[in-house]
Amino acid sequence: MTDAVKRGYRSDLRSAQARETKRRIVAAAASLFVEQGFGATTVDAIAEAAGVSRKTVFTAVGGKVDLLALALDWAIAGDDTPLTVAERPEVRALLALDDPVALVTEWARVLVQIDIRAADLFAAMEAAAALDPAARVVFENSSAQRRDGARLIVEAVDALGGLARTLRRAEAVDIAWLLSDPVLYRRLVGTRGWSLDRFRDWLAATLRHQLLDADSDGRPPKPERW
Question: How much is the pTM?
Fold first, then answer.
């Protein structure tokens, strides 16, 4: 093995180790933020849970707000791959659909998968926003990103001619943004005990009813019953 190959191998190994350490720190932080809350969680506690030093926490990620922001980003995306939600294969696939009913229904499925991973962290972020100005900025940015996602869906539906004729596009974006709020999942699934299937079906039906033109599927959407 040449010196160059050895250096490359050692570099790759160090990078892999650093990435694994970062994942461990973020996972520990996410768990503590959900269990204890942002205010009660200390960097020392995160370091201990991750099995690293306090200095390593700051070097690998940063302070508590940085940790919460990154944990939420990874939870929303599903992993630490540097792709935006819009670049994710499942989102690209739904945006490629040529039927507005199928598109909105599939978006509801994607939203529920995000909620499963991120709803509790989103609640921790919202609580942190009331305590820390920097956390408030991160929370507002996250909300803005969710609105961008809602706009992307509405534009796709509108391009297919499926958007309700009674809605202005801006109003449709507002509705889609509201219905994509993880608080709905936390209230109905977490508090009221709805099953995932029931919540997903309700969300899809509500999105179709609110956003789509009645002619999109040939008839007005009907409320679902259980």
Answer: 0.84
